[in-house]
Design a protein that fits this description.
alpha+beta; GMP Synthetase, Chain A, domain 3; about 120 residues; 3 helices; 3-stranded mixed sheet
């Protein structure tokens, strides 16, 4: 059982690395600008992958649309780059953890600043 878990992790890591390269160098859609892939979770049967992303600018519906539209292209490119029989279907989800972390950091700074 641990063996399949580590293989799933390796596949997720490879997908994350390749997607970052593809988004930076191959996707020409202007809606998909400064996107960072923060994590990839691959299902146990390797048929689906949740791709978590964040952006330097504001998150927008246009960005989500751009990623959904590029999913087929990205899937086919991953098929050629990765030596897998089955490449997972990609499902993009905005990662709010970065925003939450920044918000908590501001709250802590305000609380510490208010004590003096």
């Amino acid at each position: 059982m641990a063996k399949s878990f580590s293989r799933t992790d390796r596949i997720a890591h490879e997908i994350q690395r390749e997607l970052a390269d593809l988004l930076r160098n191959e996707v020409k859609d202007p809606r998909v600008g400064m996107v960072t892939i923060t994590a990839v979770e691959v299902s146990r049967d390797h048929s689906h992958a949740k791709v978590y992303y964040t952006t330097l600018g504001e998150h927008s519906a246009a960005l989500s649309d751009g990623l959904k539209r590029a999913a087929g292209f990205l899937h086919s490119q991953l098929f050629h780059r990765l030596k897998l029989r089955v490449v997972p279907q990609l499902h993009f989800e905005y990662d709010t953890s970065v925003e939450r972390g920044a918000h908590l950091s501001r709250l802590i700074d305000e609380a510490v600043g208010g004590d003096s």
